[in-house]
Amino acid sequence: IYTLSLHDALPICVSRVGMDGSTSGFTVLNDKGELEGFEVDVWKEITKRNDCEVKFEQMPFSSLLGMVSDGRVDTVANTLAPTEERKEVYNFSEPYLYDEQNLMSSPSIQARTFKDLDGLRIGLVPGSVDEAFINSIEKEYSIKVKRVYFDDTAMQDVVMGKIDACVQSQTIALEAIRRFGADKIKVANADRKSVV
């Protein structure tokens, strides 16, 4: 995970941090409508150590980078990975968490290899590393999936059978299994050889 900014160095007192508020364990809205989670705790500690105040701005994931670009937030902290395209525009912090992308599906999906994903409906968040993950699978295995775009995670749609699978980080995927149950959703292997 990284934070990003348009500036070479963040100002001493970053006040506006963009988050989606729906990334389990990292940025979620609590019962009081306040953001909480790992990313929130990190930024509270950063601002505390720099004698600053922070204002968290909650918005859909697909809006985060645009909000930095037009100056409505100073930075983003939202399990955001750098891509080559992003690095051309934004400055990323040093990584402070490593995670892998995985596919999640209903246990009824019987795909045993990535080639078996051909034609399946896969949920993706636009502007995220989900697309790069799916692009690499399509290219490497000469397949084509049906892309279904979401502003947020698509795990609930997998559970409800609206889509066949979704891309999710391993950390969040494991939380989804705990929350929904292994009888409702499963994680693909991360070794890229098998999806069961």
Report on the architecture of this protein.
The chain is α/β, with parallel strands linked by helices. Helix content is 27%, strand content 24%. It is built from six helices and 13 strands. It has helices at 38-49, 64-69, 84-89, 129-141, 155-159, 170-180, and strands spanning 2-5, 16-19, 22-23, 27-29, 35-36, 55-58, 75-80, 91-92, 101-105, 121-124, 146-149, 165-169, 186-187. The chain has a five-stranded mixed sheet with strand order 6-2-7-1-8. A five-stranded mixed sheet has the order 11-10-12-9-13. Strand 10, helix 4 (129-141) and strand 11 form a beta-alpha-beta unit. The chain is globular and about 55 Å long. The two termini are 26 Å apart.
Q: Tell me the overall shape.
A: globular
H/E topology pattern: EEEEEHEHEHEEEHEHEHE
Question: Which whole number gives the mean pLDDT?
Answer: 84
Helix-residue proportion: 25-40%
Query: What is the count of DSSP helices, taking H or I runs of 4+ residues?
Result: 6
Low-confidence stretches: 190-196
CA-atom Rg in angstroms: 17 Å
Across the major sheet, the strand order is 6-2-7-1-8
Q: Helix/strand-derived class?
A: alpha/beta
* Strand tally: 13
Main beta sheet: 5 strands, mixed
Give the termini distance in whole angstroms. 26 Å
Determine the strand fraction and express it as a percent band.
Answer: 15-25%
